[in-house]
UniProtKB/TrEMBL annotation, chain A:
Gene Ontology biological process: aerobic respiration
UniProt-recorded Gene Ontology molecular function terms: cytochrome-c oxidase activity; heme binding; oxidoreductase activity
Keywords: Electron transport, Membrane, Oxidoreductase, Respiratory chain, Transmembrane, Transmembrane helix, Transport
Domain Cytochrome oxidase subunit I profile, residue spans: 38-492
EC number(s) stated in the UniProt entry for this protein: 1.9.3.1
InterPro entries: Cyt_c_oxase-like_su1_dom, Cyt_c_oxase-like_su1_sf, Cyt_C_Oxase_1
Heme in keyword set: no
Protein's UniProt name: Cytochrome c oxidase (B(O/a)3-type) chain I (EC)
GO cellular component, one term: membrane
Residue intervals passing through the bilayer: 24-45, 73-92, 104-124, 144-168, 180-210, 230-250, 262-284, 296-323, 344-364, 384-404, 416-438, 469-490, 526-549
Lineage: Bacteria, Pseudomonadati, Pseudomonadota, Gammaproteobacteria, Thiotrichales
Keyword field contains Cell cycle: no
From TrEMBL, chain B:
Protein name (Swiss-Prot/TrEMBL): Cytochrome c oxidase (B(O/a)3-type) chain II (EC)
Transmembrane segments: 12-32
tRNA processing in keyword set: no
Record PROSITE patterns: COX2, COX2_CUA
Intracellular or extracellular location(s): Cell envelope
MF terms in GO: copper ion binding; cytochrome-c oxidase activity; oxidoreductase activity
Keywords on record: Copper, Membrane, Metal-binding, Oxidoreductase, Transmembrane, Transmembrane helix
Protein species of origin: uncultured Thiotrichaceae bacterium
Gene Ontology CC: one annotated term: membrane
EC number per UniProt: 1.9.3.1
Major localisation: other
Length: 559, 176
């Protein structure tokens, strides 16, 4: 190890600074996991309701209020607050510098939290049953859109904090590579700034004016194109922290070192640049965009598989190193010696397995030609529950288990329960999503609360029965696992304190820690310019076209 | 400045790039050679005035024009209106193994249409005409399902399509 890395590591954070960050991280996580705990039983209810096995609970108004709430809480609230909490913690501990402005960070927190309340009230009372995609011209109560806008604005405070922290550090450490975990975090913050432009414009310029009655009509085609700009990269915004746990925390937890630091940076930069300007693959089946644009976005969509494939390789190689250091021999012997009692190791292995299968599903969705066979069937929620609910959320669990003793000072409650919880989530996810994918292939549409009407095609409906039955068992398993997660965190706060040394935060090292990296792998501004150009090239015309094709606009409709 | 790459990792990156290239080529082949494209006609229409002959795109979706017709060039065209909560006409018949061109418009909100086990799948966005050409290979009755949430009774938005042998279809057309 070199002098310079040693000395930068020795700078201790002041206790006050650590406490501020812990508090900030804790309350962000608190909202994230409270949203999760509320939304999870709704998911289980939805599976049961539409299976038709309990006629007494069938009610469309309740079903769609529930699905809208479940989707918004899981997709927007859990993710955003988790990412913010994790990011603040990462910024302070990896850069070893105090948070740029705690007041600013708390302001963002409160704006986002008030936004959640404003959106939750109409959602829970059935005044915003427009699902988490809220496609116009169906219009919800204005409070829903205002809440959503505030949530996004609050998250921008976090983004700015991440960027300022990184720039400050770079000024103080000229020529040195930004710590890997922070480089990923700041790229993710910039990714979110770029990708939230679409939904923010849709909400501010179309949905709020129409729902408030300031405007009479809107063009749903424009709304869909704007939303698509957000809808793809948002999933990378959710996934990025999971990759960061795998790159920066897993190697050490597994008892080894990261296989490659520089290639990780290449992967991060690729994730940033390739994940945003490709959202039109969500519009393959839309008559509002010409085929050439769809084809163009198809190329980019496949490109973004590359950083994921690189990540898979690096992480598996990292696990192999750890397994061999622990005495594993032979081609696959290292798999046996890995420490599966460590939550981060176990969750990462599960996550990679789910990513491998879910990734192949993604290739089918991304195919310009195959998409027609699965678009808006049950295949789609099956796919994103596996990737998001599975691959991603299981790493959020692992991160929480890793962080909780450090930020609260209490010993983790029962490692045995933790391991059980992760296993249940993994198994439950398969039981739920395998039949879910299959239902899509055999023709069941998504977003339906009942199958009554389809009884006219009796044979078809009967072919769905078995898969829907199995899904109930999966949903129950996931429910138990999720509640167990919340229970473990709660019980942790009643455990004895850990020693100070156990609260020290340190990240994994690479086999070859770089002293310097090429300028482009440490740059922010270059990649922002690249993004601007790529984004204008891929979205400029498809957005502008709406100003001259002369679509007769739609008035607001109820639901 | 060069970066450190493990030889094995380099091989993997090349393999990854090759996989992406292969996916591109397969898709390009089907798009360029087999002419497989998703529904992408950017054609506007006044959804609020579908029943009138006037207005942008007017006339095509008037009530008496809906359903199956054969164009002078022999193309079979099915004109359908999607409105909460149904497809109109609710029942159509088309011949097997024949390209059928669907032209669809929404009367109100966002809808979608899906015929299971076929590539007949498109969004129906208010303000736009959706056009899909599909060829059905199996005889029988199939549901025409709305695949996008369009309101509380979305799951009741349903129609039927009957795929009939080619010669029977000709009989029906003549009988008309
Ligand atoms: C017990 C576990 C869960 C069950 C049983 C469940 C079930 C469901 C069901 C039935 C739907 C409606 C899908 C549709 O008709 O299209 C749904 C939607 C959704 N779920 Fe879950 N879910 C669970 C956990 C999760 C988790 C952990 C996440 C993400 C963190 C998540 C994210 C979403 C999202 C974003 C939607 C919105 C989909 C839409 O509006 O089309 N769910 N869920
Ligand atoms: Cu996407
Ligand atoms: Cu519908």
């Amino acid at each position: 190890m070199t002098e310079s890395t040693l000395s930068s590591r020795d700078i201790a954070l002041s206790e006050e600074s650590t406490n501020t960050t812990n508090k900030l991280a804790f309350w962000n996580f608190f909202i994230a996991f409270a949203a999760f705990a509320l939304a999870l039983p709704m998911g289980a209810y939805q599976v049961l309701e539409r299976s038709g096995m309990v006629p007494a609970i069938e009610n469309a108004a309740v079903y769609y209020a529930s699905t809208s709430t479940h989707g918004v809480l899981m997709a927007y609230v859990l993710s955003t607050f988790f990412i913010m909490g994790f990011g603040y913690h990462t910024a302070v501990h990896s850069l070893k510098q105090k948070l740029w402005s705690p007041t600013f960070a708390w302001a963002g927190f409160w704006i986002a939290a008030i936004g959640v309340v404003l959106a939750a009230i109409p959602l829970l009372t059935g005044h915003a049953s427009v699902l988490y995609t809220f496609y116009p011209p169906e219009i919800a109560h204005p409070s829903f859109y205002i809440g959503a806008a505030l949530l996004v604005v609050g998250s921008w405070f976090w983004c700015i904090d991440m960027v300022v922290s990184t720039v400050t550090w770079k000024r103080a450490n000229p020529g040195k590579p930004v710590p890997l975990v922070m480089y990923g975090t700041v790229l993710n913050a910039m990714l979110w700034l770029w990708t939230s432009i679409g939904v923010a414009s849709e909400v501010l310029f179309q949905l709020i004016p129409v729902s408030m009655g300031w405007a009479d009509s809107l063009d749903p085609g424009l709304s869909r194109v704007l939303f698509s700009e957000t809808l793809h990269a948002i999933v990378y915004f959710w996934l990025f922290p999971c990759y960061l746990v795998m790159y920066a925390i897993l190697p050490k937890e597994a008892g080894g070192k990261l296989f490659s630091d520089e290639i990780a940076r290449v992967a991060f930069v690729m994730l940033f640049i390739f994940s945003v300007p490709i959202g039109m693959h969500h519009l393959y089946m839309d008559p509002i965009v010409a085929a050439g644009w769809k084809l163009l976005h198809m190329f980019g969509t496949f490109m973004v598989a590359v950083p994921t494939l690189i990540t898979g390789f690096t992480i598996i190689a990292t696990l192999e190193i750890a397994g061999r250091l622990r005495g594993g021999k032979g081609l696959f012997g290292w798999l046996k010696t890995l420490d599966y009692q460590n939550p981060v190791v176990l969750a990462s292995v599960f996550s990679l397995l789910m990513l491998t299968v879910g990734g192949w599903g993604g290739v089918i969705n991304a195919s310009y030609s195959l998409n027609a066979l699965v678009h808006n069937t049950q295949w789609v929620p099956g796919h994103f529950h596996l990737i998001y609910g599975g691959t991603t959320i299981i790493m959020y669990f692992a991160a929480a288990y890793w962080l909780w003793p450090k930020i609260t000072g209490h010993q983790l409650f029962s490692n045995k329960l933790v391991i059980t919880q992760l296993w249940l989530w993994f198994v439950g996810m398969w039981i739920t999503t395998i039949p879910w994918h299959y239902l899509g292939i055999i023709g069941q549409p998504r977003r339906v609360d009942t199958l009554q009407a389809y009884q006219q095609s009796e044979e078809l409906v009967r072919s769905w029965d078995f898969s829907m039955l199995i899904m109930n068992f999966g949903a129950l398993t996931l429910l138990v696992s999720g509640l167990l997660f919340v229970y473990i965190l709660f019980m942790t706060s009643r455990q004895p304190m850990v020693s100070d040394s156990e609260r020290v935060v340190s990240y994994s090292e690479a086999i070859h820690p770089p002293l310097q990296v090429p300028h482009l792998l440490n740059s922010l501004s270059f990649w922002n310019w690249a993004m601007l150009i790529y984004l204008v090239a891929s979205y400029g015309y498809p957005v502008l076209q709406f100003w001259f094709i002369g679509t007769p606009e739609s008035p607001a409709w109820g639901y | 400045m060069a970066i450190h790459i493990d030889p094995l990792e380099k091989k993997w990156i090349i393999m990854s790039a090759a996989m992406v290239l292969l996916a591109w080529l397969i898709i390009l082949y089907f798009a360029a050679v087999k002419d497989v494209h998703p529904p992408s006609n950017v054609e506007v229409i006044d959804s609020a005035r579908l029943h009138l002959d006037s207005g942008i795109g007017g006339g095509e979706f008037a009530e008496d024009k809906l359903g199956v017709r054969q164009d002078p060039d022999g193309t079979i065209v099915v004109t359908i209106v999607a409105a909460r909560y149904g497809f109109y006409p609710q029942h159509v018949e088309v011949p097997v193994d024949t390209p059928v061109k669907f032209r669809m418009a929404s009367f109100d909100v966002l809808h979608g249409v899906l015929i299971p086990f076929s590539n007949m799948n498109t969004m129906i966005v208010p303000g736009y005409i959706a056009e899909v050409t599909s060829s059905f290979t199996q005889l029988g009755d199939f549901p025409v399902i709305c695949q996008e949430y369009c309101g509380l009774a979305h799951a009741y938005m349903y129609g039927m399509i009957k795929i009939v042998p080619k010669d029977e279809f000709k009989l029906i057309a003549r009988a008309n």
